[in-house]
Give the backbone structure.
Amino acid sequence: MKKFLLVVLILTVVAAAASAFYVYALLWQPVVPQPAPRPYFIVSRGMRLHQIADSLQQAGIIPDRNKFLLAAKLVERNRPLKAGKYALAPGLSLKDLLSLLRSGKSMEERVTLPEGKTSEDYAAILQRELGLDANEFLQLVSDSSFARELGIAAPRLEGYLYPNTYNVYWGATPREIATMLVREFQRQLDDSLRARIAASGMTLHEIVTLASIIEGEAVIDSERTVISAVYHNRLRAGILLQADPTIQFVVPGPPRRLLFRDLEIDSPYNTYLYPGLPPGPVNNPGIKSIRAAVQPARVNYLYFVARGDGSHVFSYTLQQHLNAKADFDRVRARVRRERIKTQPGPERREDP
């Protein structure tokens, strides 16, 4: 009997030692290859544990999904794996890898949101760069209660998402990012600028709306205040603004050359049909356009037209404007003819 008990004891010790060795090897043995097959791994929001295991194995980051799943049950099983983009170091063990994916310490991305772009443009950029849910972001932009929560007296956040370059953790939520952009907008409005807006006779919403039109028109910084003056003068005179950026806002799809039929679109944003400013901003302007909207140049221009090189010709009278527009139309026609000549085509024949 004693011999039997001794054999059982020895077998138990051996089994325990073997189990301990197996668990040690399972958890602490390096599994991520050197070099790692990729510098990062993405856990998308809503991914389940088995999906993460499948993705890790398919990417060549781990050799065996089943061992990963077993390790996940053995180590801190009550801590979920968090969505994020994680930097991978070669030689990580399963324990190290699980700790990383449970930490939520996502990689930081540098994202640029340019001036003059719409919230739809921003949603596309953020989805591409950060894996953001674009639809959820756009729903927040259109949520008036969320705007009020952030201190914005407007039905939408269009115009208040400040364009800038941001360092953002991959996997940040749409709410976190929208809040960050609005807070940056509010930070840009210092006390001096807020005082000038209050003294301008226009509301902040009207200023931002006008600034968005200026942003849509201006290419050269020095022209911003002059463009602003044209619109201020037309508002005072009761003349339709006839601002192309307001039409671009209601035309579906990416920006394109406007057609005469576009100017007939029945929308309150159509400043060719409806007087005054549109109901709200048509893009997200930068601080230079906001300042220009508050402090226009002291000029009496009522019209402007593009030269074709980014600058504009400004005019006092309609006849001056029509002459400048005719000059631009001739430039555009010449450019179009030259472009056609340079395009390859079968048996192209020059006119006599």
Observations:
- Residues 5-9, 13-18, 347-352 have pLDDT under 50 and may be disordered.
- Strands lie at 40-43, 84-87, 108-112, 165-169, 303-306, 312-315.
